[in-house]
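Changelog-adjacent note: as of this version, every example in the card shows the full chain rather than a window. The one below runs 204 residues end to end.
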Amino acid sequence: MTAPHWLLLAGILVLILGTVMWERSRSGAREIALVATLGAAAAGGRVLFAAIPSAQPVTTICICAGISLGSRSGATVGALAALLSNTFLGQGPWTPWQMLTWGLVGASAGWVRRVLRHRSVLLAFGAVWGMLFGAVMDVYQLAAFGPVFTWQAFVATDARGIPFDVAHAVTNVVLLAVAGGALVRLLDRYQTRLSFVIESADAA
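Full-length structure tokens:
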């Protein structure tokens, strides 16, 4: 097998592993419902903004979900949003890679959730993922369609997509600046309700 084949296989295996981990986790019905709702909302936002090139509200929602609910839920929101939105925008071999990449957005937000509570760091994180998302998808494009899978080909391909990546990054910053804090606080309150502990009273 060539390097592109190994790369595609690795992406598929990561998705399968993430699905298995979610299935085996102790997720309550309320958490599952919340994650499904966020995934559907992110998908709806992506379809709604489809006419605006590279405007991706999915990224913002994935980041906020990762901060409040953790990496597992953030990754699931991203993967679900890609799968659902492509039902309307078009399914194809790119779907698993979009699921993987948006899943990584949500998971990475969960990994560094403490520092993302600072507004400036949050905005920078959104900008970085706006650029990085396009780079990951460029790797998929070269691995799947070629013409060659080399560093030089990646640089050339990524350079052509810089305007779209910048638009994605700017959209992330604007959405996070306007609604990111409010969404995180809302999810924080819901997460508090999900994580309550019932303690039995000591016998008198």
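Structural remarks: Helices lie at 3-24, 29-48, 57-69, 71-89, 95-111, 119-145, 151-160, 162-194.
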